[in-house]
Write the structure tokens for this entry.
Amino acid sequence: MINDLRYALRMLLKSPGFSIIAIVTLALGIGANSAIFSVIDTVLLRPLPFQHPEQLAMIYSSAPQHPDETRGVHSYPDYVDFRDQNHSFTAMAAYTGVSAIWGTGDDSVDLPGLAATSDIFDVLGARPILGRGFSREDDKVDAARVVVLCYDFWQRRFAGNPQAIGQQVTMAGRVYTITGVMPKGWQFPVVRTEGVNFVTPVGPLFSAPGDNLDRRGAHFLPVVGRLKPGLTLQQAAADLRKIGAQLAEQYPDSDAGRSENVVSMHADLVGDVRLALFMLIGAVSFVLVIACANVANLFLARAAGRQREIAIRTALGAGRLRLVRQLLSETLLLALAGGAAAILLAWWGIDLLIAIGPQDLPRLNEISVNGTVVAFTFIIAVCTSIIFGLAPALRASRPEVEQTLKEAS
């Protein structure tokens, strides 16, 4: 086999024009598939970056005035009742995205962040690497204002200084005390954004009289929960609907007709883009098929010019299997070279996807050429070498020996 590969390399180097055209053609076809597969790997196949992500679920509510809306959010009082009365979740948290002016004067900057209840750390299975999170005492509207920094913001703003814990900062015109720093790479929600910079309790942030945090009809909080081991989404939904029915009886003005729905966080994240990604990978697969067909035609044309060589090999005793193996060695080398070039194209294509990709594509900023993508690329390369090389090799390995040798000089 080594001798076959060495000879194949010499033959390809003798035809640089043919080799370059074939490699470029394959690189374009394989590279497009690798780039799209990297998106599918990140969005659909890779688990969410949390502890036991299969237990994470989103809890939604549908309202009678919007029966087709299955992703309704909750009020803070409803969330508290669901959290305290359910038997299906080990932890449940409410949250909402916020934007706040950090600092004062010329040093101020508007930053995105997260307002959440204290259970968010238990739900996601993540704790600050420095300091502490916040407790249910910190959730109260009259509690002292605290904030937990995200790792990247801590590095930018405080140069990674551990002494930042305990410092007081001005956020949204109010004084907050820094209590902790989250681990590197931690982010929630998992969407394509510039990332949250801080996490602060919901209660003190919405403590102004006009915020209506305690009003049961003020629905503005998504809710996420961690299922107890062994429980299904259907069982959890049934549990919450019982609680919802009791709330509807107690508070008919705000909760009558509402129904709870529980979905996997991962399924909820990719539900809107799954079909589009599969359609996209199908489209680029056709590009690869076209590339294989073009390279196969190149090999057929090249085989016509090698009839004398194949005839002599056959006359000297080379069997058909031996000839096919030799010819497939050439296609394999071309495909591997095309695969290596495809990785470079995929790397560039991913940067382009991140730059121009749709804003609502989840985890877009996490897409990269990793080991899985490289393995996929070279598996595709090997498979394509067989696809486009087998037919020309089989055809070329059955020469008309006597006629070819008579015609040759």
Summary: The longest helix spans residues 320-356. The longest strand covers residues 89-102.
